[in-house]
Specification:
By secondary structure, the protein is α/β, with parallel strands linked by helices. The chain has helices at residues 14-26, 42-51, 70-75, 95-102, 118-130, 134-162, and strands spanning 3-8, 31-35, 57-65, 82-87, 111-112. It has two domains: 3-132, Rossmann fold, CATH 3.40.50; 134-164. Helix 1 (14-26) packs parallel to helix 5 (118-130) and helix 5 (118-130) packs across helix 6 (134-162). Bound molecules: 5-O-phosphono-beta-D-ribofuranose. 5-O-phosphono-beta-D-ribofuranose binds at residues 9-10, 12-13, 37, 64-66, 87, 89.
Length: 164
Amino acid sequence: MKKVGIIMGSDSDLPVVEKAIDTLKSLDIPFEVHIYSAHRTPVEARDFSINARKNGFGAIIAAAGKAAHLAGAIAANTTIPVIGIPIKSSTLDGLDALLSTVQMPGGIPVATVAIDGAQNAALLAAQIIAVEDADLAAKLDAQRKSAMETVLEKNEKIADKYNN
Ligand code: RP5
């Protein structure tokens, strides 16, 4: 199975990024985690992305806050799908990171999830890997079904409480 690369701009992003790690673990998807910054370690971020395909990655998650160029800088050097997580780590509550990540110019796509949306980033990476992996696709379908059943159980409880 292809690996997912998880890159964060700083170790201060880890509390959010851990949700992506946990989600990939729950699906038995192999991954690598690194701290590379578009601004503080641009050479390492570039080297990772240039070599990502030959190193067996099928999707890359890039999490960064503030002037969050990490996802775009990685996407500039690979055609492997890049998913950006804008991190809420500043006085602007993540809106700065959201706009920096989502507003990519034409030609270099970054799939941007919600501010601190680490779980969805991991699920989207899993769905990308699952295009060529039927077992993983079945696991994702089962997870969706279980989540749907949980909501329907809650619906029954709330209906019992208020609709009689
Ligand atoms: C960004 O700046 C990082 O991704 C982090 O969200 C933010 C703050 O980094 P630290 O100053 O906490 O290392 O590059």
